[in-house]
Amino acid sequence: xxxxAERAAAAAGRTTDTDDLKLPExxxxxxxxxxxxxxxxxxxxxxxxxxxxxxxHLAWLRVRKDIRGIAKGEEYNDGYSRYNxxxxxxxxxxxxxxxxxxxxxxVPHQVDATYRDTKTAKGKATRECxxxxxxxxxxPRGDVIVAQSQGEALDSGDKGTAKAQSxxxxxxxxxxxxxxxxxxxxxxSTIDRGEASxxxxxxxxxxxxxxNTSAGRLRQIHFELKQGNLLGALITNEVGxxxxxxxxxxxxxxxxxxGGAE
Length: 262
Hints:
The chain contains eight helices and seven strands, in the order H-H-H-E-E-H-E-E-E-H-H-H-E-E-H. It has helices spanning 4-11, 25-28, 56-66, 88-101, 160-176, 205-209, 215-227, 245-261; strands spanning 74-77, 82-85, 105-119, 125-138, 144-155, 234-236, 242-244. Among the domains are: 74-176, Enolase-like, domain 1 (2-Layer Sandwich), CATH 3.30.390; 201-255, no CATH class. A three-stranded antiparallel β-sheet has the order 3-4-5. A two-stranded antiparallel ribbon has the order 1-2. It has a two-stranded antiparallel sheet with strand order 6-7. The longest helix is centred in the middle third of the chain and has 17 residues, at 160-176. By secondary structure, the protein is of the alpha+beta class. The model has no long low-confidence stretch (mean pLDDT 83). 16% of the residues are buried.
């Protein structure tokens, strides 16, 4: 019975004579049989512009030291909510030259995505994409830090996956780099509380109309309305008619007192 190697050799017009498999004599000294596979970085000498060949955890630490901070310099304002944030472009622009200088590469190793059809508040059909990305942070020597981050995006077209991946990259760089915003610390200032805000007249309506509200509580409500100068506020009473809330409290109090007397 012939071996696979013998059949392959026959098909190529060769024999499997052991002499055919020997290394040429000029290579024997370079590749002895007992020697390990050569290290591709062995003997490498960094050029003038190359980064220092340090382990990846040190290279990443140097990246973090050079990223002084990324401020929330972009503004979101859709007419309903308004806030400042750190965008993907600003984050990448801060990290790109620094990672290059220290010989660090950040590449996605695996992307897991899930999708869900949804709608906006105005009823427009959109698709929600959530991604979990496993990243490889590769140092100048080729060693790796493995990290994960998630991103989420809504899109009415075909850009949801790309948007979600961009968000995941921003999360990785900001969280993995522990990048400060430069904003004042929430604990650096204090606010003295004033008096509690006065309730609106209409907020008492359900309690006033509730048959389980006691006469004592109705008197207390009347006092609170007086304190807030709300006795004359017009509200729509239990029968759908406009009435001053102070008069309504007194009327309902008398009605319940008369009903109890019977």
